[in-house]
Write a structure and sequence with these properties.
This protein is mainly α and about 500 residues long. It has one domain. Helix content is about 70%, strand content about 0%. The chain has 20 helices and 2 strands. Strands 1-2 form a two-stranded antiparallel ribbon. A hairpin with a 6-residue loop joins strand 1 and strand 2. Helix 1 packs across helix 2 and helix 4 crosses helix 6. The longest helix has about 35 residues. About 0% of the residues have low confidence.
Length: about 500
């Protein structure tokens, strides 16, 4: 109630929330621009604000950027953020079938539910869940990363071999640069610009944006199908939501739990939720063809992970990603004492965070649908004009991510790779996720190896590392199941 009173007594906070949501959605929906970039640009303006005002603005941008990614994922088949990759699986096919309005409304509504559940969990159990996250050591994070890679492979369709190849390509890309543990430089070919490795954003923009633009502009005079969203309802129709309640709630809980674990991120949450929804569905074969449950699982989980990511930030002072790290810097400059003593010494900041999360998710629905209508009209532009505009924005966003021309070069190379991937019918999403999860696996394996003094068998000890042991068992099941399913289908076909 204290946070609500602050919003009522200070109308400027409400204005900042609306402004932050709008800015976050715009940055999240434009390929190449990210929430972390938006927060970084706004950060200097928060120096002259009160701590509550600055915190509210940054949270609104953070939440809005995650939600905005679904717009380009659905309408352009280009994920605005890494967390929106999974949304492309069913969102883009539904839009191509002539139902972009339905996909947008469902995705936005699922984002709302996921965000509210994540915010509610943040209010109720932030302390205990933060304590639980401390039980995750290097071996547990390694096992979680491996499970994510196994999930990626299991979602690549009827040909698991192509899934393995795609994931391995991503893992190999993640090995480029200086090892964070041993400081050994690998696969740089004498180029000092590659010592920092491949960032996920340039690779994402290359594989998805550049390849999609080139593939869509082979006929210079081709026009994309006009997708009208003139009569888009603010809330989904009852028949759209039939049977999706369980998927949305379960995905929200999964996203919240994954978000609480520092460094894993929304992309992993979306993957895990999508896999869970597919495996528990009565019609798993429909996933990837434009099914409602696929959109709901992805968007509910990645927005719930946003609320979950605030738990380690506030309770432990541990940022869960780039955007959270920028917010941490801003809060520290404002004198906010992040960590276990925040609730005791500075409860007003905590209550302001809780209420900002809830109000922001509600505002997100209104702003997102208004922006989505504008984007839908833009899609009526011939791709010979629209393609270069998107490419320009991708170039600007990629360069602005690290202010480096090398990032642009990596994006172009990834774009060429994306065309090869399309020609070979490999999976671009698996490559990007392999890059992200591969880095996490390698770093935690190296640290776990050092901590255990070279005895990796400790990871399989159910007494010392029960969480890691269970996750490894799940990984084995996920790796073996696609092979058996493929063999079963081939046997049935013959």
């Amino acid at each position: 109630m204290l946070g609500f009173q602050q919003i009522i007594s200070e109308p400027i906070i409400f204005v900042l929330l609306v402004l932050g949501v709008f800015m976050g959605i715009v940055f999240g929906s434009i390929p190449g621009l990210t929430g972390a970039l938006a927060i970084s640009l706004v950060l200097p303006f928060t120096y002259h604000m009160t701590a509550n005002n600055g915190l509210s603005l940054l949270i609104a941008i953070y939440v809005g950027s995650i939600s905005g990614g679904l717009i380009s994922a659905i309408l352009l088949n280009i994920p605005g953020t890494p967390s929106s990759i999974v949304t492309c699986f069913d969102g883009a096919p539904m839009a191509k079938e002539g139902h972009p309005s339905k996909a947008l409304v469902l995705g936005t509504f699922a984002s709302l539910i996921g965000g509210l559940i994540g915010g509610l969990v943040l209010v109720l159990i932030s302390g205990p869940m933060a304590t639980f996250s401390l039980k995750f050591g290097y071996w547990e994070y390694f096992a979680m990363g491996i499970m994510g890679l196994c999930i990626v492979i299991s979602l690549t369709g009827d040909d698991p071999l192509k899934g393995y190849i795609s994931a391995i390509l991503g893992i190999l890309a993640g090995m480029v640069g200086t090892d964070s543990v041993s400081t050994v430089t690998r696969f740089t070919f004498g180029q000092w610009q590659l010592q920092g490795g491949f960032s996920s954003l340039p690779v994402l923009m290359g594989l998805f944006a550049i390849s999609e633009i080139v593939a869509s502009t082979r006929n210079i005079n081709a026009k994309v199908e006009r997708r009208k969203i003139d009569a888009t309802p603010m809330l989904p129709k009852k028949e759209w939501l039939k049977g999706t309640g369980k998927t949305t709630v379960v995905s929200s809980l999964i996203g919240t739990i994954i978000g609480i674990l520092p460094g894993i991120g929304q992309a992993t949450a979306s993957l895990l939720a999508y896999t869970t929804a597919k495996q528990s569905s009565k019609h798993p074969e429909k996933f990837g063809t434009g099914i409602i449950d696929g959109i709901a699982a992805s968007e509910a989980s990645n927005n719930a992970a946003t609320g979950g990511a605030m738990v380690p930030l506030l309770s432990l002072g541990i940022p869960g990603g780039n955007a959270a790290a920028v917010m941490m810097s801003a809060l520290t400059l404002k004198g906010v004492q992040l960590g276990p003593l925040l609730l005791t010494n500075q409860p007003t900041y905590l209550s302001a965070t809780f209420m900002s999360m809830i109000v922001t998710n509600i505002l997100m629905v209104i702003v997102a649908m208004a922006i989505a209508k504008v984007f839908a009209q833009i899609l009526a532009i011939p791709y010979s004009y629209l393609g270069p505009i998107i490419m320009m924005l991708a170039l600007i966003g990629t360069y602005g991510d690290q202010m480096s021309a090398t990032s642009v070069q990596i994006m172009v190379l990834a774009g060429v790779l994306g065309l090869v991937v399309r020609a070979c019918h490999l999976n671009s999403a698996a490559i990007v996720l392999g890059l992200v999860l591969g880095n996490m696996c390698e770093q935690n394996f190296s640290r776990g190896y050092l901590m255990s003094k070279g005895n990796i068998l400790t990871m399989f000890n159910p007494t010392l590392h029960p969480i890691a042991f269970v996750l490894i068992i799940v990984c084995i099941a996920l790796l073996v199941s696609p092979v058996f399913m493929s063999m079963k289908k081939k046997k049935a076909a013959s």
